[in-house]
Amino acid sequence: MLNDQCYSTIVTVRSCIHCICFFSGLSIHTFHGNFFVRSTDLLSLPNVNPDAGFAMQVSIEDNLQDSANVCFQCALLYTSSKGERRIRVHTLCVPVTNQLSEVFMGADQQAITSLLAKMAVDRSLSSTLGHAREAMINACTDAFRAFGGTLPTSQRIGTLPICHSLRLLPVYVVAMLKFMAFRVGVSTKLDDRVFAMEQCKNLPLSFLILKMYPDLYPVHELTEEGGIHREDGVIPQPPLLQLTAAQINRTGAYIMDAADSLYLYVGSAVSTQFLQGIFNTGDYGQLVEGMTELPELENPTSELLRNFLVYLLEQRPFHAKVVLVRDDGRQRVEFMRHMIEDRTESSMSYYEFLQHLQKQIQN
Questions:
Q1: Of 130, 145, 136, the residue nearest 113 (C-alpha)
Q2: Which of 80, 100, 259, 261 has minimal CB crowding within 10 Å?
Q3: Mean pLDDT of all residues in the chain?
Q4: Residue 198 carries which DSSP code?
């Protein structure tokens, strides 16, 4: 229902989003996305679809200690493709607390990452790229320093104070620093950087996270065990791997889901049975790098892999190309650039970044 209604607004003359803070002690500070600001709480859009992402910052202007809850409401007014004028209203009610530990318990690390990326784009345009990168690191440092203040001294000595709800924030920050929109030390075309910045501003949360920190799956030993059973077949569920070259083996094959692209990486020493089952050849040299379609073979290995690829593609409303990457091919460089947790000549590894955070907090 949501997709049909929101997709229909693409052809309308105008749409608008009206955001209201119910509590007088709060006010909207900044909006993020593509729109025209008509007033302090009213945005106009010529069209909108369910795959567009928006964010806002809310300022606390008065003391909220006398309130148990605070409510927010966002209303979308639009015209459908059938000429019907409709409105969709979303209301959020959150409790008020004076305990910082409870605030951290309710933190959404992916939403925070998305907001930091949008703020970093604005900082890059108003200041410099270096200031934007520094602001992302400082935001992560300040959050963990504040959380450390809620812990006893004995629990802070020699450790990095990270709350469970923000345990992935450091790796997301590393991913942002290495993302095309904000990376340094690597040759980046201006058009590519600007496009990546637009993705930060507009992509829905789930796809923005996937674009920055792709999902990596081993697919050389797919089985039906633990899979999803559907009428058209079994969808295997391989485990997720960390984005580090240490997880890549020459004897394996892997799928990397980077939102708008799916890379099928095939190691040079992968088994002949896998090659025969997927590509109908036992010779690794016959694999054509860059091929975008897999042959439909009637064997369990081919069916499980194709079912898994279709399952991944069904999770997004837009097209994503499937690209074959050889262990000795040119596409391997692009594939390995997504190994976010590894060190490069111009950026820290994930482990080094954690050490950097710990030093900053201790100082």
A1: 136
A2: 100
A3: 86
A4: H
